[in-house]
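This part of the workshop introduces the protein records we will be handling. Each record describes a single protein and holds just a pair of labelled lines. Instead of coordinates, the fold is spelled out as a row of discrete tokens. To make this concrete, we reproduce a full record directly below:
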Amino acid sequence: MIRIATKIAYLGEGFSGSQIQPGCRTVEGDIISAVRRACKHSDLRMASRTDKGVNATGNVAVFHSDLEDPDAVLRALNAMCDDVHFLSYAIVDDEFNPRHATQREYRYVLRSPDADADKARDCASLFVGGHDFARFCRPDGKPTVATVDSIDISQEGGNIIMTYRARFFLWNMVRRTAAAIDSVASGHSTLDDVEEALAGKEINFGIGRADALTLTDVRYDGIDFRPSDSRVLMEKLDEGAFKASLRRSFYESMM
């Protein structure tokens, strides 16, 4: 028997989030069903929860397998799961806890052609470091103090791309800080407004759309993931890219 950690990717549409919920289709539910059939186990643990509509290209799932060839395991799981892609793997021991990551990385795409990228950078810098994010998260009874390692701002076409890195994030924290950055970059709020909210003032900047958020990576000290050699995976990704090009062509034909 081996214990496998695998990097997984999925589009959030079609799932009611990642965490298993009775009566709903979830990422965990799809993976558990496949792992039971392929590996004869269901002891799945995941690194990060994602909300309904949120995507991932680098979340991590961990489970035991009676099948001891990890490449064969990923081939089987990719064949069984249409909408979850198993990208790479590492063999880990029973003490490995996927929740205890060194760093998590999220990408948020801000569709705001009139936004000022420099203002976005100035606003993003306010969130870097240790802060009480009580006004920038969804309360769940847990402490609201967190530390953001960095937020990088770049531009792609008419979009602003924000790359967040931290050991952990609070519930809705990226989407709510992204909404604040959008508000400042678009001229609807000021840097002073954001600073006052960080200081505890009751200011609500709203919450960014879920489908613009992607969990791009979860990193661990001393754990190296090996890419899957699965032909099934490559065929799935190629088909997905082709469908996306058809969808884009459809909308562009009417513009």
